[in-house]
Amino acid sequence: MFTSKQILLSTLLSASLLAGSIEFENAPTNPSHKLPHSSNEILSFNSILKNSMNAVVNISTATIVSTQNSQNRLFNDPFFQEFFKHYGTRPQAPTKKKQANSLGSGVIISKDGYIVTNHHVIADADEIIITMNGSDKEYIAKLIGTDKGSDLAVVKIEAKNLKPITLSHAKDIELGDVVFAIGNPFGVGQTVTQGIISALHKDHVGINQYENFIQTDASINPGNSGGALIDSRGALIGINSAILSQSGGNHGIGFTIPIDMVRNVVTKLIEDGKVSRGFIGVNISKVTEELKGLYKHKKGAIITDVQYDSPASKAKLLRGDLIYAVNGKEVKDPSQLQRAVTSHNPNDKITLSIEREGKNIEKSLTLMSKDSEKITSKDHATLEGLYLSQLTPQIRQEYQIPSSVKGVLIEDVVAQSSSDLNGFRPNDIIIQVENRNISNIQELKESFKIYKNRTKRVYINRNGYIILLVTK
Predict the structure, then answer these.
(1) Other C-beta atoms within 10 Å of 48: how many?
(2) Residue 459, SS3?
(3) pLDDT of residue 116
């Protein structure tokens, strides 16, 4: 028998082995912004770029592709069976092969091998290969964590005494600053391009769920993804994510994930292996010119709907409330409110400043986890093989679902499950079971409990069309 003290020590030891930690190499704050000038001076960033370029790595990925099914169809053919019966033993068919997927970039952020890159660079990879600048040595990286919402991921290689890049701060980034993009465009090897900060706080671009981009005209091309955008000191100000282009080439409009978001997401991925964001459970809209006359505050986010049993519902927020501050900090628009809320962790307490019917009031609430709204139906005895999610404001924005649509979203379907065979598809919205309308996961669970062990008619909203499926 173990004593309580032994059990406690074992628990603490297990927790310490699972949790990660990281110390960033931070650049000095409050740098001066000026243009070097001398009668006999060449403006060069050679020494700065050398250090930063060595902290940027090339990333290639591969997936393991099964060939068993196609080979079995070949060897099970009656002709081949008859052939091998008379002329020899049937050869063993190879079952797997490695297939190269993509090339991208990453940035070393710690001496012991943590590397940040984009989620889309390593998504669905079975193998992640890291190559250092100026070296042919390859490292097989371990995936630490990934966050699709911000398009960030962290991998780690077994190496010591690396030279990580220094990290800047968002408050030190200004419009017009000279910047350099470092990466591996088109897989031709590491290169650097120059530009300036064209814009800050860009959102509604339609690239990620959580957008607060730095826009730059530094040339960013395919393969630069996951690479570094640095300032003229060589400090990292963001991770290059995407370009706005109709042809796929660079048109001088590149988007970079800002350093403060990178720092926040990376820390959570290393410490917890995932990113949990707080949410309050509201649909929101901006203060248009037509609405400004109805409110004393001319900026903020207007609540258009309150989700059932959400923190907002428990705090008795109402449609028409104008949220103009979070914890005393001004909120200018819905995007800024989203960033303010999701920067907090679940179970954090926040205070919202609200204008209601011309009066200013404050509401305190405890944030819930957005992840807690995603459940597997198998675990809750609803539909086997479905991953379900409430239609939260974030989900509606991500999947572009109108506020008028009620139901439960199917985010994914397990292949060959009964739900897959019955015709359910990802992005379907379950709106009704028999004669019961569905507004949330709890109602769906109750409906399937009522109609347990019998054939059920399930109504689906699929891209605006209502489809009837039948399941048991």
Answers:
(1) 16
(2) strand
(3) 96
Distances in whole angstroms, Cα of residue 325 to Cα of each of 66, 333, 354: 53, 10, 7
Structure-token match 């995936």, residue found: 143
Is the pLDDT confidence value at 243 over 90? no
165 DSSP assignment: P
**Max CA separation in the chain (angstroms):** 92
Residues present in the chain in total: 472
Least confident of 96-100, 189-193, 320-324: 96-100
CB atoms within 10 A of CB 414: 15
3-state secondary structure of 18: helix
What is the distance between the alpha carbons of residues 393 and 323, in angstroms, rounded to a whole number?
15
The catalytic residues are: 120, 151, 225
Q: Could you tell me the domains of the chain?
A: 54-156 (2.40.10.10), 170-272 (2.40.10.10), 278-369 (2.30.42.10), 372-471 (2.30.42.10)
From 51, 82, 243, 265, select the one nearest 166 (Cα to Cα).
51
**Three-state SS at 445:** helix
Q: Which helix (DSSP H) or strand (DSSP E) does residue 305 occupy? A: strand 301-306
Q: Which tokens sit at 291? A: 């609405």
Does 287 or 206 have the greater pLDDT score? 287
Question: How confident is the model over 154-167, as pLDDT tens digits?
Answer: 999 999 889 999 99
Cβ neighbours, 10 Å, residue 200: 15
Interacting residues of 258 by C-beta distance below 8 A, sequence separation 6+: 170, 173, 200, 212, 213, 214, 237, 238
Residues 431 and 402: beta-carbon distance below 8 Å: no
